[in-house]
Please model this.
Amino acid sequence: MTLVPIAAPNFDVDVDLRYATADNFTGKPVYANAQAWLHADAANALARAIELAAGLGLRFKIFDAFRPSEAQWALWNFRPDPDFLADPRRGSPHSRGVAVDLTLIDGTTGAELDMGTGFDAFTTQSYHGDTTVGRDAQRNRHILLGVMSAAGWDFYRREWWHYQLFDSRRYPVLSDSVLAAGQAGGLMAKP
Model:
């Protein structure tokens, strides 16, 4: 299995990998590898979403992608909240390399579009269908949902930023150990 690096020039996205920094709800970095990776199937779906967003003059900022099982445990141990975090015993779509957390940005200025809450705001205002956020935020969430859905992504109703491949459980849970010495185009996951 190949994990594909999500970075320029192959992917026209900004990457702000929050769990590689202290700018996340734990207040400290939880990733040993500070790069965004996705399973090849998810990378292909992201490439399609990038193309669709570009047609609207928009781009993506990636907050999270592949999340090793060790990191999922660190997040769960800090805040075991099943409404916003997958129980690591069941496995997260992130830990399978088939989920991405992202927002839309203006394709010219790079400014984030208003989504009503920040990334990882663990409140009901983060729900896709929440109507207490402003109209612009609701519209922007609908645009994000439309682009990602058209590109083949499923959504998690409690997090406007979270998208995953359908039938994500068919992919295995992966740990930091899958990131072996790389080759051009991706890192090979150990069997």
